[in-house]
Amino acid sequence: MSVFVCPVCGAMLENTGKSYICSKSHSFDIARSGYVNLLLSKHIGKAVHGDNKLMVKARRDFLDKGCYLPLCSAVCDEALKYAENWSAVLDAGCGEGYYTSSMKAAFDRSDIAVKMFGIDISKVAVEYAAKRDRSVSFAAASVFHLPVADRSCDLLVTMFAPYCGGEYTRVLKEDGIMIMAIPSENHLWELKKAIYDTPYKNEVKPYELDGFKHIGVRRVSFTMELTEKEDIRSLFSMTPYYYKTGRTEQERLESLETLTTQADFEVLTYRRK
Question: Which residue, 54, 39, 156, is CA-closest to 96?
């Protein structure tokens, strides 16, 4: 059973194998790679949204080398801690599916039978994700207009994606769990110092969120030793700083042969009120 709903009329969508169809006959073809496009033009706006092919490929290459494995393991452990009689898990802003697929594998190893769903506004990203893991249902859509049924998800995971509390509380069941990963204050500090004249540490905002009870925080910090220029570029291309960096700073980045920098995250866990 799918949690996806028709983005046109809101009726439940049925997966026929080749497409998703609702009771009012709105149909959405499943691409060869395995994802479905549920993104309506009115939800995109005038600006270009979502990560482009360069950013998606950089993140995929970097993550597949295991550079953020401690973070991935922490998120999977946190999900397993609360898993009980779950049926549906949603990764909102799933990107290329690294964390989504890892969580699904963790559930499978623990004999927890859940259906996994991933949504991202970038069609490039969900195409990569669908090719990575056929056991997960992926859709191109905006987290601000989730084509997901009300109260249908036991767990919602958001990894550095834009936060949309209204949609997240809508799709989560009562007492459902939300796990959120955010960069902590020292994340990539040494990289920032190597590139910028006046680097600044990340601001960590208060944990309280409307509609949720904060029930846990886990700090995940580790040192990364990057010995290949390609990995340094990929790491930087994954960050929001990439398109905001001038020529001088880009030249400093290109001059780095190796990099030792701290990865610093916080894994926050909430229960829907």
Answer: 54
Residue range 63-88, pLDDT digits in tens: 999 999 999 999 999 999 999 899 99
CB 129 within 8 A of CB 104: no
Whether pLDDT at 48 is above 50: no
Say how far apart CA 156 and CA 88 lie, in whole Å: 9
How much is the pTM? 0.94
| Structure tokens given for 151 | 């109260």
CB atoms within 10 A of CB 75: 25
Phi, psi of 147 (to 5 degrees): -80, 60
CB-based contact 169:211 (threshold 8 Å): yes
Q: What is the pLDDT of residues 14-46, one digit of tens each?
A: 999 999 999 999 999 999 999 999 998 776 654
Q: Which two tokens stand for residue 179?
A: 């796990």
